[in-house]
Amino acid sequence: MSKAARVLSVEALTDFRNSMIKFNEEARGALSGVDMELRRMRDWLERDQLGYWQMQVKRRSEEVMNARTELARRKIAAQGSDTISDTEQKEKLREAMRRLRIAEEKVALVKRLIPVLHHTIAEYKSCASPLADHLSGGMEKSIHRIGAMVKSLEGYLALRAPSAPSAEAPGGSGSSSGSSASAGGSARTGGVSESTSADGQAAPAAVGERQSVAAEAETVANPS
Prior knowledge:
The structure is a single chain. By secondary structure, this protein is mostly helical. The protein is rod-shaped. The model is unreliable at 172-207 and 219-224 (pLDDT under 50). The two termini are 105 Å apart. It contains four helices and no strands.
């Protein structure tokens, strides 16, 4: 059995519905913002960072090759001479190799972080999807239902009580009573006249019947 609701203020229902609409919009906007940020992070890691450090590995590998070539040339030039030193070329080679090692480590790190990011995004979506479905489904239905309730209550409050019917004039009831009485009197009068007429017709027949019975009795008494 359904229970009646005690609605004390239609305005409170309207305010509650407006709050639900605002929450729905803000929550859906927040979810959309998070989705955009996750896509931006994934693109930055997979495309920008991975592509950048892979390009750095290629360039720094070339720098290492150039440094080795210069060092080899310097060594050839320094053979048989104590005034020519290859210290600068060796330092450049060490620096180029260090820079190449950093780029290779960055590439390896980015490749390790990509699956971690994908797993984190999947976990987030598994938790956020029910909320997104409720906001676009159940919440929308609730907002629509409360709006229909507000409209129904406003229509009920706008109704007015029907006005009382006007009383009849005193003369009308008296005239109707007089006509009824005259009709009843005429009916009674007609009934009396009809019964009198019927008695008047039946009386002569009864007298003649008694006379015929008396004549038959005399015939029986005096056969001659």
